[in-house]
Prior knowledge:
The chain is an all-alpha fold. 32% of the residues lie in helices and 0% in strands. Residues 32-33, 36, 38-39, 48, 59, 65-67, 81-84 line the site of one iron/sulfur cluster (SF4).
Amino acid sequence: MSKVSDFDKFGVEAMSKDEHNGLQSSLNEKCLCAGCPSYVEGDENIAFCFPLTGASTAIKQEKGCMCDGCPVYKEYELTHGHYCTRCSQLCQTYKTELGAGHE
Ligand code: SF4
Ligand code: SF4
């Protein structure tokens, strides 16, 4: 049976608060969201793929996604997209793979 930790691409399960904050800042700097057609200003953080960022409170409409061209996407071998509206990599994986009962 798969565990959530198997899909924890960013390793957040074992991360301290300081490590989380440091990684959040680093991801924000590399993130392409601010140049995306779907992007709307209003969130404290971008890098919506990161599980602890949370989905956007400002972006409501999907008008395209730039995630698959992002260095973070390649570095962490991400597999989903539209993280701002659909929730993080871990959350979407949980819904589609664990939620569907795959092992
Ligand atoms: S998560 Fe994807 S769709 Fe959302 S703002 Fe970022 S690049 Fe655009
Ligand atoms: S993969 Fe998408 S949400 Fe994550 S840092 Fe890159 S552009 Fe931002």
